[in-house]
Amino acid sequence: MESVHSKKEDCSGCSACYNTCPTNAICMKADEEGFLYPVIDQALCVDCNNCVNVCPLTQDGNYKNENIPEILVAKHKSEEVLLKSTSGGIFTAISDAILGEGGVVYGAEYDDEFHVLHKRAENYEQRNSMRISKYVQSNMGEIFQEVEKDLVDNKKVLFTGTPCQIAGLKAFIGHSSLAYNLYLCDLICHSIPSPLVWEDYKTLLEKEYGGRLTSVKFRTKEIDWSRENSKKAFLFTTSQSEQVHNDTRFYKLFLEEKTIMRPSCEKCRFTDIHRASDITIADYWGIEKYAPEWMDKKGVSIILINNQKGEELLRKCNDEVKYEKRPKEEALTEQQRLSEPVKFPEGRNKFWEDYGKYGFEYIIEQLDK
Ligand SMILES: Cc1cc2nc3c(=O)[nH]c(=O)nc-3n(C[C@H](O)[C@H](O)[C@H](O)COP(=O)(O)OP(=O)(O)OC[C@H]3O[C@@H](n4cnc5c(N)ncnc54)[C@H](O)[C@@H]3O)c2cc1C
C-alpha cells in the first residue's frame, strides 16, 4: 500500500489506520503545517488493506445516527463546575457518571509543555485535566488500542473528542459486541488548528514575556462566558512574570483569518445534525435571545441527544444537570457547523508559503499591521 489517503483533505489525522496496522508499518508524521498524517513503511507493509478499510473518510462508512437529535439547553448545577468548564459543564457531569460506575474516560489534555494529546482517566483528578477546550489538534497516539483494551476488560468507556476522532474510533471498534460499553461524546467543532502554530505561538509568548509558560487557559471563565468573549478569553502566565496576561493573536489566526486549520476541516463530513456520537455538547450561543432566563455568564451548554445511549448518559446525571428541550431551529441558526464546514480564505496557500519562507514572527507582524 503506497498511501492511506490520496489527498490531504481526505485525512483528518484520527489515527485509526495507525492503530489498526497489524505490522506497525504506519507512523504518524507531521507535515510542513504541523498536522499528523500516516506514512507507510513499504518494507513492513503486507498489503492487507486494513488501513484503508478502517478510514472513516476514504471509506464513507455509515457512522451517523439516522434520527434528528433532541436539542436541550443545559447547565451543571454546581457553580464551581461551571467556572472550571468551557460551557455549561456537561463533560464533567457525564464523565462523573461513568467514573462513578467504575468506568474510564478519554479526552484531550495538556502535557507538561502544553502539547495537546488524548489521554485516559480512571479517577476524578485525572479527568479534571481534560476540562476546558484546547483549540489545537490533539495527538491520538495509540489511544484507540487503549480504549479497545478497556472494552475487552469489560469496562465502561466514555470517549470524548472532535467528530472526526469519534468517527475514527467508531470505525476502529466496528460493530462488534465491544461497542456495547462504549459511550461517545463529540463537540460541535468549528475546525481544528495546527499544533505547529501552537508551538510557535507558545515560543513567541515566552520570548515576549520572558521565562517558560507556566499556565495557558483558552476560554477561561475569568472572562465572562459569551460568544463575543470566546474570541478573547486566552490567559497565560510565565515563570518570569507574576502577572496574568491576555493575548488574542492565536484566536485571530483561528477564528478571523481562518488560515491555521487542518485541510480536511474545509471538507468536513461531520458538520451535520446527524451525528456520529451518542451525545454532542457545545455552547448554547444565542440563548440570551431565545430563553433569557437560561442566560448565565458562567456558561450554558447545548446538548444533542443523538440516540438511546445519549439519553441513557444524560439520565445518569439527572441530579447534577438542569436541562430543558429547545427547538432544533435555534441550534441550526446559531451553530454553522451543524450544517456546513468552515470556508478557508483564498490566501491560505500564500499564508503557508510565507510561514515556510519567513517564519511565524513574520506572520504575526503581518497580523498586527
Ligand atoms: C477544537 C474545538 C472546536 C470547537 N468548536 C465549537 C463550536 O464551533 N461551537 C460550539 O458551540 N462549541 C465548540 N466547541 C466545544 C466547546 O468549546 C466545549 O468544548 C464544549 O461545549 C464542552 O464544554 P463543557 O463545559 O461541557 O466541558 P469542558 O469541561 O470544557 O470539557 C472539554 C471537553 O472538550 C474535549 N476537548 C478539549 N480540547 C479538545 C481537543 N483539542 N480535541 C478534542 N477534544 C477536546 C475534552 O476532552 C472534554 O471532553 C469546540 C471545542 C473544541 C475543542
From TrEMBL:
Residues 2-31, 36-66 form the 4Fe-4S ferredoxin-type domain. InterPro entries: 4Fe4S_Fe-S-bd (IPR017896), 4Fe4S_Fe_S_CS (IPR017900), FrhB_FdhB_C (IPR007525), Polyferredoxin-like_ET (IPR052977). Gene3D superfamilies: 3.30.70.20. Keywords: Iron, Iron-sulfur, Metal-binding. Pfam families: Fer4_7, FrhB_FdhB_C. This is F420H(2):quinone oxidoreductase. It comes from Clostridium omnivorum. The lineage of its organism: Bacteria, Bacillati, Bacillota, Clostridia, Eubacteriales.
